[in-house]
Every structure is written in structure tokens, then in C-alpha cells.
Amino acid sequence: MTQQLPARYDHVGSFLRPKYLLEAREQKARGDITPEQLRAVEDKAITEIVKFQEDVGLKSITDGEFRRTYFHIDFLEQLGGVKTDIPVTIRKPDGTEELAPPVMRVIDKVRHAKDIQLADFQYLKSQVGAGHTPKVTIPSPTMLHFRGGRAGISKDAYPELDPVFYDDVAKAYGDELRSLAAAGCTYVQMDDTNLAYLCDEKMREAARQRGDDPNELPHRYAAFINKVVAQKPAGMLLAMHLCRGNFKSTHAAAGNYEPVAEALLKEMDLDAYFLEYDDDRSGDFKPLRYLPKGKTVVLGLVTTKFGQMEDKDDLKRRIDEAARYAPLEQLALSPQCGFSSTVHGNDIAVEAQRDKLRLVIETAREVWGTA
């Protein structure tokens, strides 16, 4: 039987970093403080954000991703066989500059070289009160393939990708999930931009240029994710969040979920999906028709990109629209993404985080009648 979410309301996980934490990270980068001193500052910030989440009324509690720079890099580069190229500043055609995201390459056999999230989870768990569930967020394993494609994976280590590369990555993820489960973790969310990117024709064309078929990739990724799910420890809820980009309140892709919906909802053996539905770039709810019994879709109807508040009646109307394609009892509500997928944060005030989350909780309680 599929394990249920802690509540009908949830959140994706990241929060704006407090100023003192950002300053401490800069001090660490300059060599003014030690890694241990930085971790003590992170501990303080995490204790505060845990209390914030509990006070707001959330049931699932994260560490705000306060120990990370990027939602994905900090985890993936700790896998054996993975290397990160240093990000560079690029000049766009209009003359403005932006920081190009780091590029990950697989240079050797992928393996679970160490427990990556264990110590972080243990601290989070120690701060979370009774009646709440600590949630760990990690990047989806597809992040090791999509950005670079075949060219980003060593042919010496992997002359053929299928099945050895996918098996090795799944084994590494399985080892990580087992280490977390042994410490008492029951809720893990995998963050995935790639399936959402495959809803955008520009991104689909980029995949073709890398030698991949964008129609085939969602089904290949479903089989890939299922290799991880097959190793999920008993009693652990495994969810996936789809994101179209969340760097400084911008997005990288747009498009209806239709090109990936069947592979995502019907073929993947996940427990829950967090789907962005906060504006027109996400399309309509029709793709939800593929949702089988026993799974939950968390509707990301409240934006984290900007501070303007949504109208509660509009949210209820949109939930009703979604329920035309998937049973209401298989739906839940959340913000569309985290408030700070990278250390840079979104263009939103700190206090707006509280207002947005309270809106989500109040709306969900009125719709589903939950406590």
C-alpha cells in the first residue's frame, strides 16, 4: 500500500538563507573561518528554520537546504566518479552577464563513496519535534545524464550506458537511501528539472542536438528512476519534484506536462509528485489523467518566485479543475518550488515565505477538511 504524505499541505524544501549564514559562507570561502565554524552557524540557522516551519503549521520539515549552494551540485559531486566544472560568468547577446550553472561530468564508475546526507539528517531529526516528519531533499539521478548526455559520461568508464551506468547510479542512490533509513528517515524527495525541461520545445531540440530522442527519454528516465525505487527501504516515502528552473525568480523552461505525463505518472513507481502549476508556463491539468490509484500529486499552485499573494478562492477553483482529471483524495497543495533553490535566493521577502505557507495550509484545510 502506498505510504501517504504527512499532510494534504506540503512544501518543496528550500528557504531564503539568513544574512548571517550568507556572511559566514563568504568568510569560509575567504578562509577566515573553518568548515567546523561554518557548520556551527548552519546548525543555528537550521534550528531556527525548523522552528519557523513548525510554528507555521507544516507537518514535513526540511533543513531549508541551508548547507548547500545549489540544490543538486552539493550532493552529486560527493558521489564517486562525478566531477563538477567551476561555473563561469557568460555574456548574453543583450550585453548582460549571468552565471552559467556548474557542469557535472561522470569521469569514472559512479559509486556511493560515503554517506552524503546522513549527518545532515541526524541534526535535522534532532531538532524536529513530535508530530512532524523530517524530510530530506536530494537531486534526481537523471541530473547525471540530461545536461551533458552521452558526451558528459566517460566512455572509458561506460562504453555503453545501458544497463551498467544506470545500474551503478541506482545502486549508489540505494546505498544513500539505506543509510538514511537506518537513521530513521522516512521521507525523501528527489528534485528533477529534466522531465520538466522535456516539456519545452527548446529543451527538446537541445536534447536532439546531444543525440537523444526527447520522446524516448521520459520512458528511459522512468526505467532509471524505477531502478532506484526498487532499492527503496521499506516504510520510506519517495517523492519527486519537477522544476522548470528557479534561479533568482527566473525559469528556464515552459510547457504543458503532456510530453512526459504518461512516463512520469503511470510508469514511475514513486509515491508522490510535486508539480509546478503556479502560472501559464505549466499548462493545464489534463496530464493528470494518467495518475494511477495509490499515488499523490501535490499541486504547486502558489508561486515562490514573487511576493504577490494568490487569492484563496482562485486556488480552490484550480483545485476543482485538477480534480476533473485526478481524484481529489489523490491531490494535495504546496508552493510550486522552494524559496531558494540556490544560495542566491528568489526575489521575495523573508516574511512572504510565512504568508505563502500559511495560505497553502489554510486552503488545504478548507478543501480537504484536514487538521
Provide the descriptors you would attach to this structure in a database record:
371 residues, alpha/beta, six-stranded parallel beta sheet, two-stranded parallel sheet, 11 helices, 16% strand, globular, methyltransferase, 5-methyltetrahydropteroyltriglutamate-homocysteine S-methyltransferase activity
Task: Detail the topology: elements first, then pairings.
Blueprint: H1 19-30, H2 35-56, E1 60-61, H3 73-76, E2 80-85, E3 89-91, E4 97-99, E5 103-111, H4 118-127, E6 133-134, E7 136-139, H5 164-182, E8 187-192, H6 194-197, H7 201-209, H8 217-229, E9 237-242, H9 258-267, E10 272-276, E11 296-302, H10 312-322, E12 331-335, H11 350-368
Parallel strand pairs: 1-6, 7-8, 8-9, 9-10, 10-11, 11-12
Antiparallel strand pairs: 2-5, 3-4
Helix pairs in contact: 1-2, 5-8, 8-9
